[in-house]
Amino acid sequence: MEKRQETQWRMKQRKKQLDMLGNFTMVDGRAYDAQGRDITDRIVVNTVDTPKQVRRLEARDELTRHETENGGFYMLYFAQARTMVERFPTLLQADGARLLFLATYASWEEGRLQYDNGVVIEKKDMPELMQMSRSSFLKMFKRFVDEGILEERDGVIYVNQSVAYRGYAENHPFDMRGYESTRVFKTTIRHLYGEYHRKAKQLGLLYSVIPFIHANSGIIAENPEETDPARLIPMSLTRLAMVLEYGDPHKLKQAMRQIEYGEDEVVFRFIEDIEDTRERQIIVNPKVIYGGGGTGLDELQSLFIRRKKRKRK
Asked: Which is deepest, 53, 178, 232, 312, by most CB within 10 Å?
């Protein structure tokens, strides 16, 4: 093999390897993916030479840590800058929150609904899991089946993997070209659903805004596909209310602000103390939804820590 051909071959193999791996963590000389699987035999660890490589590895380490701290993730698929209602017209706003929650129980590369210990979740047990009345659950279940989100086969329920998927990208059973994806973090979503299941309509706002979230910055934008931060156009509250057909922008803002993660964090951050209205932003907490590569993730995450009021002496 000529030197030039060999170099090209090595570059192709390296790219293929990076695309396959996604993110991994080294522990005692072994490599583990975000789900804790040993993938040492699937990688080659090379010496880092350039500043660009260093930054890339730092971002990857930051992202891997983030994924682990928030319980792992699944990939949610959507049509960018198009409302969820366009894809699933019969779903209620509350169903968005229920879908985000339910998909955290999809099994690896099969989509079978099961508990974390591997026991299959039976349909009769789902109302309790989802903290819904049986009648409300059955209506929701029918909507999910009619929309192709869930499928029941031989008494086992599966999540459509063109909607939500856990597994290696190269093993995805469908051609998802034409769709975008983002990470939905399991621990965070389960916590939020536990806190807001009685206000599922309010929590469903999180699902509704996903197609408009810019991957790296978390900003809800008019052009979320934009790769140049300088060209990103943040979506105004008034515009967002119109897109979501919410009605009153002020009530929308109130509903979004009231969604909190624990005692110290918010889910939506409003950057509004800026004179130029064009610079106002609505940002989504990356502990819940994040589609970026990890660069600046810690800094982004710090925006959502609630500032504690100082006690007067």
From this structure: 232
